[in-house]
Each structure stands twice: as structure tokens, then as C-alpha cells.
Amino acid sequence: MTPKVLSIIETAYRATLEEQDDTTVWFLHALKGAGSPQTLLLRGNAVNYAVRSQDASGLAFGARKQTQPPRLAEDLSSISRKGVTVLLQKEDVERLGLSRDQLIPEVELVGRTRIATLMDEHDLVWWF
Predict the structure, then answer these.
(1) 42: how many CB neighbours lie within 10 A of its CB?
(2) What is the pLDDT of residues 35-47, one digit of tens each?
(3) HEC string for the chain
(4) Rounded to the nearest 5°, which phi and psi values hold at 106?
(5) CA–CA distance, 75 with 52 (Å, rounded to integer)
(6) Pair 76, 86: CB distance under 8 Å
(7) CB within 10 Å: which end of the chain, N or C, has fewer?
(8) Domains of the chain: residue spans and CATH
(9) Smallest Cα–Cα separation from 66: which of 12, 24, 21, 18?
């Protein structure tokens, strides 16, 4: 039996400039494509990944321009369409002053008290 995996991303924007995506989200795409059951929980500043209006185009560091900026909200929508459940920790969404209508529709908000239950419902927990 293929283990059910809960991946928790708490550190936001790790390698998004170098890789044009979040490496964990990219990896989950690959694992889901190989048939592995996946759930993704975003907490901390990583809940920002689900904000629809993000736009990193025009980003530059000196003369170096980012020609392929990350499109994290689109990546989350895509992974959700593949069957990965995408969850956001509700308290972090509220702490950052985000409203539900600013987020992509594919995400579900869950309270902090549900995290232990989520961990128990999965065979493996990967925390990033």
C-alpha cells in the first residue's frame, strides 16, 4: 500500500527565485503523478502562496531580471486539480489580514486544533 503523506510547508518562498517555484510543491506534483496520495498544509507565511493577486513579474536584482517569476497560486490550483488536498491554517490567514476572497478557491481553511488529527490521518508527515 502506498503511504498517505501530509506535507506541511511553513517556510515560505524557499528557492522560489532560483527555481521559479516552491521545490516542495513541485515535488508533490511529481509524487501525485506517480500515484502517491498527498495532502498539503500551508501554515505560517506560506499561506501567502494561495493569494491570487501575487505578481513577481518585474522582479530584478541589479542587472539580473527574473524572466520566469514564480506563480505559486497557479501551482496550487494545478496540484489541487490533480487531486492533492490543499489546506491553509486559518489562524495564519487571519494573522496576515487575508480574506477568503483573496485566496484561490481550491484551498480549504483549517484551524490549528485540527493539525494533530491531520497528522494522525496520514502515514507520513513531512514538515518543510
Answers:
(1) 27
(2) 999 999 999 999 9
(3) CCCCEEEEECCCCCCHHHHCCCHHHHHHHHHHHCCCCEEEEECHHHHHHHECCCCCCCCEECCEECCCCCCHHHHHHHHHHCCCEEEEEHHHHHHCCCCHHHECCCCEEECHHHHHHHHHHCCEEEEC
(4) -75, -10
(5) 11
(6) yes
(7) N
(8) 5-127 (3.40.1260.10)
(9) 18
Q: Do residues 32 and 83 make contact, with C-beta atoms less than 8 angstroms apart?
A: yes
CA distance 45 to 13: 9
Q: What is the pLDDT of residues 58-82, one digit of tens each?
A: 777 788 887 888 889 999 999 999 9
Return the pLDDT at 120: 97
Q: Is the Cβ–Cβ distance between 59 and 110 less than 8 Å?
A: no
Retrieve residue 95's grid coordinates. Answer: 494573522
Q: What are phi and psi of 94, to 5 degrees?
A: -65, -40
Whether 21 shows a pLDDT value over 90: the answer reads: no
